[in-house]
Amino acid sequence: MNINWYPGHMKKTKELIRDNLRLVDVVLELLDARIPISSKNPDIDGIIGNKPKVIILNKSDLCDPKILRQWIDYFAMQGTEAIPINSISGEGMNNLIDAVKNSAKDKIEAMRNKGRKIRPIRVMIVGIPNVGKSSLINKLAGKKTAKTGNKPGVTKGKQWIRLRKDLELFDTPGILWPKIQDENVGLNLGFTGAIKDEILDRDELCVKLIEKISFKYPDNLKERYKIDKLDEDPVINMESIGKKRGCMRSGGIIDYSKVSRIVLDEFRKGILGRITLEEPGDL
Predict the structure, then answer these.
(1) Residue 70 burial (CB < 10 Å; 0-12/13-18/19+)?
(2) How far apart are CA 82 and CA 198, in angstroms?
(3) pLDDT tens digits for 163-206?
């Protein structure tokens, strides 16, 4: 599945990051805890270079807690602190603030040694679309500051936001890379809604998701949709879900589009259970 979805504002966002990187002390890279590999833009590390960075694993309430621990340990071995958060409930925010302060301590200490007035720490937040940046900003600020939405590409412009007395944020729009050639990456981004549903075949996407969950978390599917036994063919499992949920057209024909909407929606909301689609071992 080769995906070419690179709106013009994404190219401008890369330039925006490069042009303003010198103004910030710490970069916050926001990833989806269910797909830390696929939600990591491979261009970002090259752009930010040696700038201090904290990785944020958002939607940690939707992922497998055992594998989440593995990811935290993995990034620690790479020399980067990874903080799991839930940008909706606010869980993990205090840990995130502590990590930012720790990453900026050398810069603050240098300012103090020079006798300069200590200003707020300046951070830049980067990540792919629909991974929860706006919700995170609003939670940190304690008020509705950034526009939020459940579709990728809501945040289009640049903005400085005073989050608190000691923290300022330079926000950037979500950014993908020009061509997603790895099919597994493309599928994972589709499963989580990071790529607009309108440019994908939702029915095919649903079949692939059922196939993956059947392999990694079969009991989740069986319990949610009351299926006694899963078939090796994901299409048959999709049809079983359709029958159980009454997704039928006249003549006993399965309404595949309706099944796709149900399964994708319930996965994205965590109704299917806490599921992680990627493990460090996959690397």
Answers:
(1) middle
(2) 32
(3) 888 899 887 766 655 556 678 888 999 999 988 888 889 999 99
